[in-house]
Amino acid sequence: MNVVTRKLITKELHVNRWFIVGGALSGIASVLIAATGKTGFNVGALTWLTTVIATGVMLALYGIMNERKEHALEFVLSLPLSIPEYVRAKMLGLTACFLPMWLVSSAAVLLLVFAKDSIPDGLAPYAVLLCVFMLANFTVVLCGSLHAQSEALTSAVIIVTNMGVSIFMFTVGPLPGIEKFMWSPTPAWNSTFWTVLGCELVVLVIAFTLPFFLAARRRDFI
Amino acid sequence: MKQGMNDKHIEMRGVRKVYRFFTLDSVSLALEPGQIMGFVGPNGAGKSTTLRLLMGMISPDAGEIRVLGHEIPKAQAIAKRDIGFVSAEMRLLPHTTLGWHMDFMKSIYPEWDGGYAATLVKRFNLRPEQNARSLSLGEHVKATLLLALARRPRLLILDEPTTGLDPVARHEVISEFMDVLRDESRSILFSSHNTVDVERISDTLTFIDRGRIVDSGDKEAFLDRWRRIQVQLPPGAALPALPNVVKREVDGQFVTLTTNQYSEGLQNLIGPHVTHVHRMNLEEIFVANVMYHREARGQ
Asked: Å from B47 to nearest chain A CA?
């Protein structure tokens, strides 16, 4: 990785530092709210989901769309780097911005599940799947934003991925291998769990690597 | 590297770029070290497209581009180490200050001249602590120029850099360009539709219109070659067939001829009826040149 790519990754971390800190704090606060009881659990779950989704969307919007819209992309592309290096810096930089918030928020959720007696440990596999889904969802938003050449297309990607969260909850939650053990005292790391996790990881890997092959080969970047 | 192509700072040969509603066609131009080339054209002529092609931001559909001896867009990362690019549209990164940008550039470019950057901050009346979002249009242009100039690049590519600047700021900026050219190994390609700025600083000119280069050459040669000749013909008299006349305006017995190859021979050919010959300024040359080529192309 050359010096310009490294500096651009550092730039993303600097420019988005308040999103990272704010997102992580909001994730922790959501989990604390979720620990206060049944109503608190619902409110906390909702704010946790909103936090993770919104942080990902904001990073993609500010990091990619706004840079283009506000003509700062010309400044970045005037630096000594190629288009593939720019794409690499964007993917790695924005993922590096999302990961701390995601790790903190996901760890807080798992801590809540295992530490709180009123929440059964059986919920852990579903929580893990949800957390990994949120990460995969972010990489899809990032991938879509890097490929979309218009604000409308980026907005469409964001809407579709947001809908994906609801679809995930309505389809994965009721799966027999998940639903049956969700309220049991011990987690069931069964084949359903591993199959869903595998699917999520496949989506994540594809969405993360696609820009290196497609966006990086785009002939026109402005 | 091909023989003979490594001397020029910029060389474009037969470059074509097709968009849905616009085509840049057969663009060829060359910039030697130590030159300032004014790249002049009306709005939408293809100036920005040409400069973006040179920066590798977009790729040509045909033709060859070399900048500082490097093939573009393939070797753009290497070429851009020595290019300072500024456009009137370019903005600094939001949520950061000018000072942050200066540190950022310093960390990327080993040639960054901190002393010169500080001088430019003062000269352009900028404040390093100022947030990018709070900069006015003129301040943005001056800030991006500062970031480009303090790197001491061998080649400056400037896309309408004086657009939006007040006359004093324009004077400051153009003076800086003149300073850059004191080092004869440096060069500037400077696009504009403001012919006053171009006339002031350029030594060579290239005119572009509707995606095609219409003329290119030495500025003084342009100013020498182009003339407007006023003729008052006696009743019943007619002008002979005249070479190199690009425009003929007739108002009764008064005729105004515009030529792109003025010579005493041409004046002698017209005869004793010439009442006045006057030199044209760059704007007049530019407009006459563009209109002539549009007519020649049947546009």
From this structure: 15
